[in-house]
Amino acid sequence: MKVAVINPPFMDGKFSRSSRSPAIVKSGTMYWPFWLAYAVGTLEKSGHDVLFLDCPAENITRKDLLVKLEKASPEMVVLDTSTPSIHSDRTVAAAIREIFPEIAIFLVGTHVSALPEKVLISAPFLTGVVAGEYDLTIPEIANVIESGGELKQVSGLWLSNQDEPFFTGDRELISDLNSLPMLADVYKRHLKPENYFFAAARFPSVMMITSRGCPFKCSYCVWPQVLHGGTYRSRSAQNVVEEFMRVQEYFPQVQEIVFEDDTFSVDSGRVADISDALIAAGNKLPWTANTRANLSLEAMKKMRKAGCRMIIVGYESGSQVILNAVSKGTTVEQNLSFAKRAKQARLLVHGCFMAGNPGETRETLAETLEMAIQLKPDTAQFFPIMAYPGTRLYQQYLSSGNLSTEDYTKWLTDQGLHNCVVNLPGLSSEDLVNWCDDARRKFYLRPGYLVYQAIQTLLHPATEGRRTIRAFSTFRKHLFRKRS
Questions:
Q1: Are 156 and 255 part of one and the same domain?
Q2: Does the bond joining 204 to the residue before it have cis omega, within 30 degrees of 0?
Q3: Which of 10, 20, 399, 411 is 20 to 30 A from 391, comparing alpha carbons?
């Protein structure tokens, strides 16, 4: 059957719905729609004809989308969602329903997985919501519809019902990730690397996923809690490297691969195995990965030898009180030691910092900025906390009255940038946003940092220089201007 899988348009901008913190990002970052791509791959593997449209990446407007769908006449539509875009996503689904009164329309993603009943009650025209991992659920739905069967037999669904939404029961998590189609093959058939940009990586880059879930218990992290059931699973080293090499074969223009796992470095031994396999394959393409501050020096050195250029680490806060409050499971001392090991291994570091976690004060924010400067990451991001439905942090702030609104349209600014709806004692949401803006300026406008970046650009104009200039061209207007 013909299935349309859609990353819907939103705010006519480069909205990264598949990001952990969906927004139109200051650096111009545009994430690959990897979760949708997995579903496209499993649908095609099951013999279905798929129309895959990434509207934000391809600048497809709502009007253009509806025209394309009318021409394609799908029998089933799958729409990705996110918390800040949910009202728009629901409106897009309603417009599709007007054109196709009888087809099946399903929503997927973190927001609808966290609040399926609320979404279905507000949008009874939907066929249903697919909760959690949907790679295998979507093709099963298509098979059942095609054969005329009952959707109630498909686990992992919330179905619209006259009285109240009906849940078909939990679906077992995918245990064998090696059995899933490779993203590289789906990307080759449907997407273009030039439509995507990751500010920390060389352009163009491709995003891959080598594991799901996370054994650590950070209260704010949305994918492990909402999509992946908190259970860590990983692909084999050989499977990962096979896909890595396919990307190079399919897209010779690609300059870097980004491992977008929540925590690529859960196991230093597995990191070493993947690095060894890349070395054995003769890899020359740079890559970047999300890591944790527990990564060993030996693993870092092996990563570097295997082509790793940069590691991305969630330092989050310079206060141990704050790290403990969000169950981060790391220490300030570990963060400092991690930075030293990365320098020894000659790996670049992108450091991530947050403002507004439980217990945050002006003093702890000052500690965070002080640590950010002391750590000297090559690049850094400072985000006001975004507590998403389905996470323990969201429930904590909801119960304590620290969320200023549950109107999800307020979770972004009018320009689509991250907003903050958390108010803490002595720190308003505006204070938290302003601190992030100030911290960003103080970090990036240090004379020593500017000299460092100028040297990197001069020494590597075709790689680091190209990446830095592209990111800065978008980022600069936010760096020098306070939000009104």
A1: no
A2: yes
A3: 10
CB 470 within 8 A of CB 203: yes
pLDDT of residue 28: 83
Per DSSP, 289 falls in state E
What distance in Å separates the CA atoms of residue 138 and residue 42, rounded to the nearest whole number? 8
CB-based contact 32:191 (threshold 8 Å): yes
For residue 344, give its domain range: 198-479
Do 150 and 222 fall into the same domain?
A: no
pLDDT score for 24: 87
pLDDT range class, residue 25, cuts 50, 70, 90 = confident
CATH number at residue 103: 3.40.50.280
Q: CATH number, domain at 275?
A: 3.80.30.20
How far apart CA 98 and CA 7 sit, in angstroms, is 19
What is the pLDDT confidence band of residue 207, given thresholds at 50, 70 and 90? Answer: very high
CA distance 373 to 327: 24
Is the distance from CB of 208 to CB of 259 less than 8 angstroms? yes
DSSP E strands in 39-130: the ranges are 49-54, 76-80, 104-108, 128-130
Phi-psi region at 359: left, alpha or beta (left = phi > 0; alpha = psi -120 to 50): left
In a domain, residue 147? The reply is yes
The alpha carbon dihedral of 298, 302, 307, 312 has a sign of negative
pTM for the model stands at 0.93
E-assigned strand segments in 292-435 = 308-316, 348-355, 379-384
Amino acid making up residue 357 = N
What is the C-alpha R_g of the chain? 22
Question: Same domain for 150 and 6?
Answer: yes
pLDDT in tens, 257-308: 999 999 999 999 999 999 999 999 999 999 999 999 989 999 999 999 999 9
Handedness of CA 327, 328, 329, 334 (dihedral sign): negative
Of the chain, the percentage scoring pLDDT greater than 70 comes to 93
| Alpha-helix runs per DSSP H in 25-85 | 34-45, 55-58, 62-72
Largest CA distance in the chain: 67
Q: How many residues does the chain have?
A: 484
> Taking the CB of residue 130, how many other CB atoms lie within 10 A of it?
25
**For residues 222 and 283, what is the distance between their CA atoms, to the nearest angstrom?**
32
Distance between CA atoms of 303 and 378, rounded to whole angstroms? 18
Closest CA relative to residue 379, chosen from 355, 353, 349: 349
